[in-house]
Task: structure prediction
Amino acid sequence: MDSITLKAPAKINLSLDVTGKKENGYHTIESIFQTVSIFDMVSVSKRSSGINIICSKPGVPCDRSNIAYKAAELFFRYTGINSGAEIKLEKHIPSQAGLGGGSSDGASVLIGLDKIFETSLKQETLCMLGGKISADTAFFTLGGTAYVTGIGEILEALPQIPETHFVIAKGASGVSTPEAYGKIDQLESPVHPEVQKLKQAILNGRFTECCGLCGNLFEQVTDLNDVCHIKNEMKEMGALSAVMSGSGSSVFGIFKTENQALACAEKLGEKYEFSQYCKSI
Result:
């Protein structure tokens, strides 16, 4: 096999809390991650030497700053394989949205290179390598539903939640993750989301009836009007819960039926830059 094309899914944070800050400046989190059916397409091919990134979205850097490039570089360094790769990124996951698109691309590069070079790396190894690239990349080597702690590198697989109908929407503005964490540091009396209660509900098979426990500490430092408006509009259209993902700026709504979710996605799509129906995967 000389090439492979993989789907790189987006993720949402069903719940997200910041629990502390380490001496090296990294923040520790407690979160429940969930992959959803919005995908970038990542094609990985062998080449004799060098790493070449081609991206469908203008403005995305295709040099060493790209997570996909970092993933390929790390793979070759770890395995000792003297070769190269061409990586084509077809982008559908919006950036600066808290959906982990770049990190998911990086995980797909690791998985793709492992397959085409037949290195048979264990899941634990792929996760370890992903954690060296970005916190979210470690999760994307696993996918599904996971309880995530540390700086994002400690993963506990959870039972898959029932098929859930989501709408994810985002306005034109993005959020800088470093700036968002800086604002978190300035909070004096933050109201922490109930991550443990939501985790227990998932373990007990009661996610749908307990999805009101979904929450995100970053909402307390987000000043984007679009986030507030999208949440309100989702709830007006029947969302069981509506919460910002990651450090922002996308919002996901949870709906009881597919028809409700499709109607909401269509209405929000008339006003906002991104609005899409998807499912948990």
